[in-house]
């Protein structure tokens, strides 16, 4: 087997997602998740040829787990097929407008962005340093969630606060999920036979973290996430947009300090906070069918805020060639898609109930009627996008 494969790494604070992908034929040889790292329950879930194998690795840290992943890759004779490594990096600030081969200057720049993503960038750097240790001769690429949104104009990314905070401290809207947006936009345009550089797309990436974006001629011109992943849509445990003065209110009325409020807004809000039941959309939809009032309320708020945000994003476009739903919720929740399109009826969207019920599988992803503007489901593949970028940068 020639050296055409890319090892894709997404290193988190307590997990490592990985895959070996050939970006030319889009074949995924293996994928997996190392989770609960440095805890007694640490383990690797290895997926290959439709089968799943679990390796328990009590208290193993990132380095030990990666050694095991490397050993498993060697057993499958995949190590010698690797042409490059691609890393997901959440935040590149204003420094990176595209993916880039990693060198010492890039590593330093990712470190400089830690203040913008304190939970993510340190873990990405750890993954980069470990893979550099075990694959010192392989080219490695950083693929940034934020880079896609660097095409936004100032009117879209600036906050109405003293400009010195942007000029001196880079306080602005950065967005996220850019790798996903790039993938699904390209896929949708191919299906609809629309040139990407002439397209007008609305896209909603909906998972535990959620955002939406307006994509004009293949470039992001506005998005809902901001300086941090808290801003924008209602999410699994994050509140999304909220009156910033809630910090003062909760401090004075309830005595909460800044750490308590930050935890409340990031980890106790969203679908979980509204429903007081779960942050999992599937659980809430089941409860809604059984008459659970707060589960119903949570889904209604989630859907309405999304529809309202998409309506606002539409003002950045000339027309709507397609509204794309992607991410775990976007790809699987027929309930939320139906509610959102109903709220967007002013744009003329008409749902095809049968197509929506089977997640668009028999209709090229399209879930609207023939005389409606197009709304469609595109299954995202960020790992393949990272593999493509890494291969292109490495010249393979």
Bin the helical content. 25-40%
Q: What is the CA-CA span between the terminal residues? A: 14 Å
Strand/helix succession:
EEEEEHEEHHEHHHEEEHHHHHEHHHEH
**How would you sum up the global shape?**
globular
**pLDDT < 50 runs, ≥5 residues:** none
Number of strands: 13
Query: Tally the helices: what do you get?
Result: 15
* Radius of gyration (Å): 21 Å
Biggest sheet strand order reads 5-4-3-2-1-6-8-7
Class based on secondary structure composition and strand pairing: alpha/beta
Largest sheet: 8 strands, mixed
| Beta strand % | 15-25%
Estimate the mean pLDDT confidence: 95
In words, what does this structure look like?
The protein has 396 residues and is of the alpha/beta class. It contains 15 helices and 13 strands.
Features:
single chain, 396 residues, alpha/beta, eight-stranded mixed beta sheet, five-stranded mixed beta sheet, globular
Task: Chart the SSEs and their pairings.
Elements: E1 5-11, E2 16-22, E3 27-35, E4 43-48, E5 51-56, H1 62-75, E6 82-89, E7 100-101, H2 104-112, H3 121-134, E8 140-144, H4 154-157, H5 163-169, H6 178-192, E9 200-206, E10 210-216, E11 219-223, H7 246-254, H8 258-267, H9 270-275, H10 281-289, H11 293-313, E12 322-326, H12 327-332, H13 334-343, H14 353-357, E13 375-377, H15 382-394
Parallel strand pairs: 1-6, 6-8, 9-12, 12-13
Antiparallel strand pairs: 1-2, 2-3, 3-4, 4-5, 7-8, 9-10, 10-11
Q: What's a concise summary of this model?
A:
With 396 residues, the protein is an alpha/beta fold. The protein is built from 15 helices and 13 strands.
């Amino acid at each position: 087997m020639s050296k055409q494969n890319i090892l894709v790494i997404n290193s988190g604070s307590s997990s490592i997602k990985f895959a070996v992908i050939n970006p030319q034929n889009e074949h995924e040889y293996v994928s997996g998740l190392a989770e609960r790292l440095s805890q007694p329950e640490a383990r690797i879930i290895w997926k290959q040829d439709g089968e799943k194998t679990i390796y328990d690795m009590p208290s193993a840290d990132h380095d030990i787990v990666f050694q095991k992943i490397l050993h498993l890759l060697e057993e499958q004779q995949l190590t010698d097929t690797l042409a490059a490594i691609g890393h997901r990096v959440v935040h590149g600030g204003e420094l990176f407008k595209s993916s880039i081969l990693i060198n010492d200057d890039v590593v330093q720049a990712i470190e400089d962005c830690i203040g913008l993503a304190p939970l993510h960038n340190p873990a990405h750097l750890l993954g980069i340093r470990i893979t550099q240790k075990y694959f010192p001769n392989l080219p490695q690429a950083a693929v940034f969630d934020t880079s896609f949104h660097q095409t936004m104009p100032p009117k879209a990314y600036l906050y109405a606060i003293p400009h010195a905070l942007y000029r001196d401290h880079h306080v602005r809207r950065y967005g996220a999920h850019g790798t996903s947006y790039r993938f699904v936009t390209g896929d949708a345009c191919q299906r609809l036979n629309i040139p990407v550089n002439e397209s007008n797309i609305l896209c909603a990436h909906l998972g535990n973290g959620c955002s939406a974006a307006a994509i004009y001629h293949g470039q992001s011109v506005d998005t809902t996430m901001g300086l941090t992943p808290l801003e924008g849509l209602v999410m699994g445990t994050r509140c999304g947009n909220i009156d910033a003065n809630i910090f003062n209110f909760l401090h004075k009325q309830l005595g909460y300090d800044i750490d308590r409020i930050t935890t409340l807004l990031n980890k106790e809000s969203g679908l979980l906070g509204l429903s007081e039941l779960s942050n999992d959309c599937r659980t809430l939809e089941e409860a809604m069918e059984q008459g659970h009032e707060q589960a119903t309320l949570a889904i209604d708020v989630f859907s309405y805020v999304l529809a309202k945000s998409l309506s606002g994003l539409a003002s950045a476009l000339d027309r709507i060639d397609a509204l794309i739903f992607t991410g775990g919720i976007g790809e699987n929740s027929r309930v939320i898609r139906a509610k959102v399109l109903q709220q967007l009826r002013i744009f003329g969207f008409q749902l095809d109930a049968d197509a929506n019920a089977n997640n668009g599988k028999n209709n090229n992803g399209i879930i609207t009627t023939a005389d409606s503007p197009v709304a469609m489901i595109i299954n995202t593949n960020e790992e393949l996008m990272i593999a493509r970028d890494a291969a292109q940068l490495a010249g393979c």
